[in-house]
């Protein structure tokens, strides 16, 4: 391996780590009620389609944090993480498990994937578009309205799954979609 090849590999490894750090900052920010940290994972003009809600990072994180305070504790666990680098754009698929403990009752759990388009702007990797897919949800979270939204989320077991979309695009008609009433903060 020559020096140029070694530098290319080091640069790719750095990019992959910065992208993984971005995903983990979002999760930690939501779990610790740290809005600034969660927002640091996004570019300001990003769009987040999170099954129940779709909008700007500011709107989504504000809504998400207002929902999180209903639980005694909650956490996101990141598992499989695959990133395809393409210059200053990267396509990521990150599996997650979310667990939350309400004040009374059984823990609530959801398993799914963050399908992200990352962009490096001014040397900083961040989410430009996110499609959060819920693949499985505990029955304590999933009523008829939630199950309908999960189906609309587009998860499939073939190349029609949103993880194959290049570049990842969010349907503009979904932006500013309000969460379903059962998931309204309060």
Description:
The chain has 186 residues and is an alpha+beta fold. It has a single domain, classed as Nuclear Transport Factor 2, Chain: A (Roll), CATH 3.10.450. 30% of the residues lie in helices and 35% in strands. It has 4 helices and 6 strands. It has helices spanning 3-31, 35-39, 57-68, 144-152, and strands at 42-49, 54-55, 73-86, 89-101, 108-121, 124-137. The protein has a 6-stranded mixed beta sheet with strand order 2-1-6-5-4-3. A hairpin with a 2-residue loop joins strand 5 and strand 6 (124-137). Mean pLDDT is 87; it is low at 180-186.
Structure characteristics:
alpha+beta; 35% strand; single chain; 30% helix; 6-stranded mixed sheet; 6 strands; Nuclear Transport Factor 2, Chain: A; 186 residues; globular
How does the major sheet shape up? 6 strands, mixed
From the structure provided, what is the oligomeric state, counting identical versus distinct chains?
single chain
Q: How many runs of DSSP E, i.e. beta strands? A: 6
Total of domains:
1
Task: Identify low-pLDDT runs.
Answer: 180-186
The overall average pLDDT, rounded, is 87
Helical/strand content category: alpha+beta
DSSP strand content? 25-35%
Query: Helix proportion of residues, in percent?
Result: 25-40%
| Distance between the first and last residues' Cα | 59 Å
């Amino acid at each position: 391996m020559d020096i140029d090849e070694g530098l290319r590999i080091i640069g790719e490894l750095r990019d992959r780590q910065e992208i993984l750090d971005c995903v983990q900052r979002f999760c930690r920010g939501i779990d610790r009620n740290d809005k600034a940290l969660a927002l640091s994972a996004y570019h300001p003009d990003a769009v987040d389609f999170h099954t129940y809600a779709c909008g700007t990072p500011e709107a989504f994180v504000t809504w998400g944090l207002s929902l999180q305070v209903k639980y005694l504790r909650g956490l996101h666990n990141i598992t499989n993480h695959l990133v395809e680098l393409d210059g200053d754009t990267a396509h990521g698929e990150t599996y997650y498990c979310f667990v939350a403990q309400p004040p009374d009752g059984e823990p609530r759990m959801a398993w799914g994937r963050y399908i992200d388009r990352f962009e490096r702007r001014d040397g900083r990797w961040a989410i430009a578009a996110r499609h959060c897919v819920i693949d499985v949800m505990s029955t304590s979270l999933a009523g008829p309205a939630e199950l309908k939204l999960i189906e609309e989320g587009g998860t499939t077991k073939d190349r029609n799954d949103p993880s194959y979309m290049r570049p990842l695009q969010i349907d503009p008609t979904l932006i500013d979609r309000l969460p379903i009433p059962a998931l309204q903060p309060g």
